[in-house]
Amino acid sequence: MPESKGRAKRTYTPPSKPAKAKVGNPPWFVPVMLTLMVVGLLWIVVFYITSQRFPVEAIGRWNLGVGFGLMLAGFAMTTRWR
């Protein structure tokens, strides 16, 4: 009895690798983060050094809130830093 020919096996091709997702932050992220923290700190220091007359005299003690708000925004950005 004749022997049947086997099917030709295809050569192995590995599956394509999925594209890697970009990990990291845009180049502006770290400078903005640091700038917010430094500006907030300077805002509070200027407020105390000038006997509560500057940076904005009209808002009084809310200058502390502005300074701490700027620093808090910079700190919040550190949680997203990769």
From TrEMBL:
UniProt GO cellular component terms: plasma membrane
Job of this protein: Involved in cell division.
Species annotation: Pedococcus dokdonensis
Membrane topology according to the record: Multi-pass membrane protein
Gene encoding the protein: crgA
Keywords recorded for this protein, A-Z: Cell cycle, Cell division, Cell membrane, Membrane, Transmembrane, Transmembrane helix
Family (UniProt): Belongs to the CrgA family.
Region forming the signal peptide: none
Localization terms from the record: Cell membrane
InterPro entries, per the entry: CrgA
Designated name of the protein: Cell division protein CrgA
Domain of life from the UniProt record: Bacteria
Region: Disordered, residue numbers: 1-21
TM ranges: 28-50, 62-81
Main subcellular location of this protein, as a coarse class: membrane
GO biological process: cell division
